[in-house]
Structures are given as C-alpha cells and as structure tokens.
Design goal:
The complex is a heterodimer of chains A (111) and B (554).
Chain A lengths: L22 H12 L1 H15 L2 H16 L6 H14 L3 H19 L1
Helix pairs in contact in A: 2-5, 3-4
Chain B lengths: L3 H4 L7 H10 L2 H6 L3 E3 L5 E3 L19 E4 L5 E3 L3 H7 L5 E4 L4 E4 L4 E2 L3 H11 L10 H10 L11 H9 L23 H11 L2 H8 L5 H7 L6 H12 L10 H10 L13 H17 L14 H6 L1 E9 L5 E8 L2 E3 L25 E2 H9 L2 E2 L6 E3 L4 E3 L1 E9 L3 E6 L2 E4 L4 E4 L4 E2 L3 E3 L5 H8 L17 E12 L4 E9 L2 E6 L2 E5 L1 H6 L2 E8 H7 L23
Helix pairs in contact in B: 8-13, 11-12
The chains are: A mainly alpha (111), B alpha+beta (554).
InterPro entries (chain B): Papain-like_cys_pep_sf, Peptidase_C19_UCH, Ub_carboxyl-term_hydrolase, USP, USP_CS, Znf_RING/FYVE/PHD, Znf_UBP
Family (chain B): Belongs to the peptidase C19 family.
Organism (chain B): Hevea brasiliensis
Chain lengths: 111, 554
C-alpha cells in the first residue's frame, strides 16, 4: 500500500511488507497475552534477589557512579555499562529454571 | 559520607521538563492516570494496549525499556528515544512504560517531578471508608502530629545530678545504677528485663526524678498492687549506691498478681519477652487510667507507652487493581524472624534449605529487611478488596511509621509449632550493630521505594524524630528451650557490663558481640549520649553531704 506523499508515515508493523513475525515474536506475544510473562518476570525477580545478583548490580552501579561523579552520570550510561555485566553474571540455575518454565508453557499452549 | 539527606531533596527539574510544564501544566500527567495499573510486584505501569503489545515506532522493537511520549503518545525504545525528541519539536519528556517514571530524551536521563509522583501515588492510595488517608491528609497529619520528644521536658540537668553522686561506701568505680539482682527461683527472665529497664534513659529519668509518686498513688487506690510503684522501689534501691545484690520480690509478687489471668504465675522459667510486655502492660494499666483514656495506645501518656511505644504501618495491596489499604497499629516492640536466606543453598531444583557451615552470617539488618519486605499473602488468605468488590490475592508490607524513644527488638528464637506439637530454639548467632540507623525501615522510605523511583514525600515525620539509635542493653539467652539462662549486657559510658543475676562484671565488646542475643534495646542517639554524660564517678563537691538521699529513695 502506498502512503500519500504529504502524510507522515504511520508506523505500523502490519503495513511493512515482507516482515513476517518471527518465532520469537510469536512466543513473546503468546506469553504476554496469557499473563505468563508477568509471572515469569516476577519469578525471575525473586530469584535474582535471592541469589544476591541485584545487590551485586547495585554495588556495581554505586562504584561506577562514585568513579564518574554523581552529577556526570545519566541513567543511560549506567544501563550501557551494567547491562553486559548483568547478563553475564546470571547464575546458570536461574537460566535453566526459566527455560524449563517457558518450555512447559509452550507445550501446553501449542495444543 | 552522609548523603542520605540529599536523597530526599527535590532535584531541580531539567530545562526541558520545566519548559514542558510551562506549556502543558499538569494535564498530561492527569490524562495518564487512567492508564496506570499496578503490577503484582508493586510497580505502577502504563497499560493501555489491550490487543497488541507496545512497540517502538522506529524499529518495531518490543524489548527493553519503552517510553511513551507525553505529548503525542508515540512509543520509542531506549535507542530511539533521542530520535523522537529530535524529529518532533517539544516532545522531550517521555514516561517509562514499565515503571511510570519520567525520562528526558534530550538529557538522556531520568528526571523527577513531585507533581508527577503525586499523580502516580494518589492512584495507588484509595479513599477507603475506614481509612481516610489520602495524599494530602498525609501532609496535614504530620503537622498535627504530637511532638514525640515530649520527654525532653524532663529536666536532664537534674537527672545528671541524681546519678552523679559517688557513693563513698563503694570502693570500686562502677557507675551508679549497677546492682545485682538475686535469683528468686528461675527468675532470671525477670532480672534480665529489669536490668534493661533500669537503664533505659527516659524510663530511668522518669522514675529517678520522682515522677511516680508512691504516696499519691497509694492514696488514690486502696489496693497495694501497682507495678509502677514496685518498679519505683527498685529504681531507688538500685541507684542508692548499695552494691549488695537486691531481691526484687515485690515486683515478682505484683507481676504474679497482674498476670494471674494469663496463667504466667508459677515457679517455672518464663519467657523474658513475655515478661517485658506484661510489665509494660501492668504499668500502663495503672498509669494510663485517669489520664487520657484513649483507645489508641499510640497516644497514651503513661510512661511505658511514652518511652516504648511506636507505630507500625501495614500496607495491603490488591494484586489485581493495585489499590492499597493502610492500617496503623501501635507496638511496644518489634519481633523479628531470623533471616534464613544466608543459610540456604541456592539449589532451585531441590528447593532444599540446608544450613551450611560458615556459609553466611545472619545479621540484624537482614532480619529487619525481612520484616519490611513485601510478603505475598497465601491464596488461602485472600483479602476482600474494596475496589474490586471481591476477594483478591494481595501482598502485605510492614514499615515503621513512628519510631519510639527506646526501640526494643525481639528475636524470635523460640519456635512453637502447634501442628507438629513441638518447640525448638534457633541457636544461630545473630550479628547486631551497636549503632543502628532505622531510616530505611521507616514508612517514608519503604513506601517511597515500593512506588518506584519517587521524589514525593508524604509521610513527613523525619523532622520529628531522628532514626539513629545507640544500643544500651542486650538480653541474651543460653541453653535449651526448657532450661536456659538469661543474662543482660549493659553499655554504660562505652563500657559493657554483664549482669548475671546477682553478679555484675566488666566485659569487653567481643564478648557481647559473640553472645546469643534475644532482645536488643536501642535508645535514640541523643537520649543515649545525654544519659551517659554524667553517669560515672565524679569527685564530690566538699559542700555536699554524701549521704544526702537521692530524690525518690526512701
């Protein structure tokens, strides 16, 4: 479908030709619709607090802010610096548990 | 570095946010109110897409942080937020969808606005029929709140004089007020609590300055039973300078009579904590009557409540609609469960809790964290939500709305299980600090944190009382559940003393730290330092008669 020259293009995934929703997107949508994603997020939060990951990240943030100076740090800076460290330091047991839960969900959702 | 005060001052609005507010006022915030939703973990999110998930208008991404523009409601992800602000003039301020927090695209940083927080927070608090606590009420309440430091009217100069006289009969340089208490038959539970009460600064000053007049008290009531009178006798005896161990038989007898209805009167070992509560209750019964007869013990003017009573706040949040109902309960002490997290192996699959040797230390702050952590109420404890008009899952969070002058912490070491018909004692060592800062357990901190990154303060009692405490007494328990022994450690002028019934000895800090604490008593820092100022041997002025009776001592 052609957009009128004067009208600003409306962002719409459906209008974008040739872009099929990926498997990942489909799964994500199903997770959200059923409310399972929220439950998984909650579980994840609980586990990460329990194992001390959250405290570790907090400490990393504090150290970074101390180094840079409080007024020189933005939230974006922190996110960029902490994200890779955070992703790398998640315990395997937590990853395994969540994968297990997602698999279980997919099995019963595919029916 | 003490930056904690800076946390609660409003940071300046960034230029872009200020411009936005000039142009739009609060209309943008208000229109957002209808889309706010509280998620089960307590966060407030924006929720207005029923059929589809929010996606970035530039890249169609749906992962990571997504921001909603306050002006045109278009969504951008964190990588494209700047692009949105650059492509549309004036669309600088956006809202984080998941957290309901303001973000400025041009500054690429989070920004804060008390008005915005007010809008978000007021959605969270419901106007309930029995709980008329609204956001504005919070501000009004704090200004009307009675001054907690009413005990400051007790002349502290006088109290110093009371205890600064050195007793010439005694060779040793022990501070006044240290006297052993004889064990009258498994009464170490009583002795240990009495020792702690004898040295609680405002409590001590009240009795030593003769505020409880035994004569008028006897005249006012025919029967002899007045726990406060008996305590007064003990104060006089203990601070008289006589060092021979004293037998607190009168208190024991009075307490037996008072607690007869509770079936506590016997020769068996009792629980020190139960005794503590019932003694304060007994004092209240006598002193509270005749004064302001209020149902709310929090405003009671009896000495027991004025010193020990604090106010706990309990927030129950419905997980479906996010509305919170708040109740306040007065408390004489706080009972803490021991935090087991450091002792469990993180074995998610097995879900086992195996205590490992030296795997971690249980600390007091961990127990306090546990106390104020949001707790999901079980599905068998669904509460009726006024907003949803049905029973819903909810979570509860406790916090301290008002701290008492003397904070008594009780560690729940004795587990009684009615189901399994057994009782056991938890022997783990608990690490506790000598200086305690309770700021993060105040309602103002806890509720603020629960609602996300907020600047808005609505519980304004920080100005009234400080949250810094100093320890002055520890009651420890050693032995088994059935046959244990209570000992009190007192800190007077930075020296620790062990009060083991009739035996008082000097001990060092390490001993105290290694002990198995059961009840810990903290006094507000200012009161502690004032009290310990004059409490030592001071050279007598030549004019004063050394045997001049101390006020209150007969």
């Amino acid at each position: 479908m052609r957009n009128s020259v004067n009208r600003p293009p409306t962002p719409d995934a459906a209008e974008d030709p040739g872009k099929e929703p990926t498997l990942q997107e489909i799964i994500n949508i199903k997770l959200i619709e059923s409310g399972e994603k929220e439950r998984l997020m909650e579980l994840l939060r609980e586990r990460l607090i329990e194992c001390g990951w959250k405290d570790e990240m907090k400490a990393l943030c504090r150290a970074f802010i101390k180094k840079k100076g409080r007024s020189n740090v933005t939230v974006d800076d922190l996110v960029h610096v902490i994200t890779p460290k955070g992703r790398a330091s998640i315990p395997d047991s937590i990853k395994a548990e969540l994968l297990q839960r997602i698999r279980a969900f997919l099995v019963q959702a595919a029916v | 570095m003490a930056t904690k005060n800076l946390l609660y001052t409003n940071p300046k609005l960034c230029q872009h946010l200020a411009d936005y507010k000039l142009r739009q006022g609060l209309s943008g915030y208000k229109s957002l109110q209808n889309c706010l939703k509280t998620t089960p973990n307590g966060r407030t999110s924006i929720y207005k897409w029923d059929t589809e998930i929010p996606r970035c208008c530039f890249c169609n991404g749906y992962q990571g942080r997504l921001f909603l523009c306050l002006i045109c409601s278009s969504i951008s992800c964190s990588s494209h937020a700047l692009l949105h602000a650059q492509s549309e003039d004036g669309h600088d301020v956006v809202v984080d969808i998941e957290r309901s927090e303001l973000y400025c695209c041009l500054c690429s940083d989070q920004v804060y606005d008390p008005d915005f927080d007010k809008v978000v927070v007021s959605k969270n608090m419901m106007d309930m029929p029995n709980n008329t606590y609204t956001v504005d009420d919070g501000i009004r309440r704090s200004s009307k709140r009675r001054k907690v430091n009413s005990l400051m009217d007790l002349d502290f100069r006088k109290s110093k004089r009371l205890v600064s006289m050195r007793d010439r009969r005694e060779k040793s340089c022990y501070p006044l007020g240290l006297r052993g208490l004889n064990n009258l038959g498994s009464t170490c539970f009583m002795n240990s609590v009495l020792q702690a009460l004898l040295h609680a600064p405002p409590f001590r000053n009240y009795f030593l300055s003769g505020r409880h007049d035994r004569e008028t008290c006897k005249k006012r009531s025919a029967d002899r039973l007045c726990l406060a009178c008996n305590i007064d006798v003990i104060f006089s005896a203990v601070y008289s300078g006589d060092r021979t161990p004293y037998s607190p038989a009168q208190v024991l007898y009075s307490w037996w009579q008072h607690s007869a209805k509770l079936n506590l009167a016997s020769y068996e070992q009792q629980d020190a904590h139960e005794f503590f509560i019932s003694v304060l209750d007994g004092i209240h019964e006598r002193e509270g009557n005749g004064r302001t007869p209020t149902k709310d013990n929090g405003d009671c003017q009896c000495i027991a409540h004025r010193v020990f009573s604090g106010l706990l706040r309990s927030d129950v949040t419905c997980m479906a609609c996010g509305s919170t109902s708040t109740t306040y309960d007065p408390c004489l002490d706080i009972s803490l469960n021991m935090d087991t997290s450091n002792f469990s192996s993180i074995d998610v699959a097995n879900k086992s809790v195996t205590p490992k040797e030296n795997s971690g230390i249980c600390t007091l702050s961990a127990c306090l964290d546990l106390f104020s952590r949001p707790e999901k109420l079980g599905s068998d404890q669904k509460l009726y939500c006024q907003n949803c008009q049905e029973k819903q899952d909810s979570f509860k969070q406790m916090s301290i709305s008002r701290l008492p002058l003397v904070l008594s912490l009780h560690i729940k070491r004795f587990e009684h299980s009615v189901v399994r018909r057994m009782a056991r004692k938890i022997d783990w060592h608990l690490q506790f600090p000598f200086s305690l800062d309770m700021t993060s357990y105040l309602s103002s901190s806890i509720v603020r944190n629960r609602l996300g990154n907020r600047i808005f303060t609505f519980e304004n009692n920080e100005a009234d009382t400080s949250a810094e405490f100093e320890i002055f007494a520890v009651i420890t328990h050693s032995g088994m559940l059935e046959s244990g022994h209570y000992v009190t450690y007192l800190r007077l002028r930075n020296q620790w003393y062990k009060c083991d019934d009739a035996w008082i000895t000097e001990v060092d800090e390490a001993t105290v730290r290694a002990s198995q604490c059961y009840m810990i008593f903290y006094a507000q820092k200012m009161l502690y330092y004032k009290a310990n100022d004059g409490l030592s041997c001071m050279p007598l002025s030549p004019m004063r008669d050394p045997f001049f009776p101390i006020a209150g001592c007969c």
